Amino acid sequence: QVQLVESGGGLVQAGGSLRLSCAASGRTFSSSTMGWFRQAPGKEREFVAVIRWNGGITYNVDSVKGRFTISRDNAKNTVYLQMNSLTPDDTAVYYCASKRSLGGVSAPGNYDYWGQGTQVTVSS
Question: Would you state the pLDDT for residue 21?
């Protein structure tokens, strides 16, 4: 069983930055693919970024547009999402998720474990 705990969300003005963290329990972190998703009210959960167990990274280019950076620290069992140049459209609950199985990295259904989410609110 893997537990994921997100932190770092909050209220920020447009143009500001936030750094989200996701701490994972267990001994499988280094072999897990870690993803960030977000869900705004009334919308479906949206893929934001993923960092694979081997370090490979994929972004949702349309939503991130070069503003977000995903990284991981296997020694700390933690994955990060640095978010810069935030806009009100980035307002959502942000979730981290982990997977070790095969399957596409952008589909929420392919992930095995989820955190409880952290709220990010960007004011205009």
Answer: 98
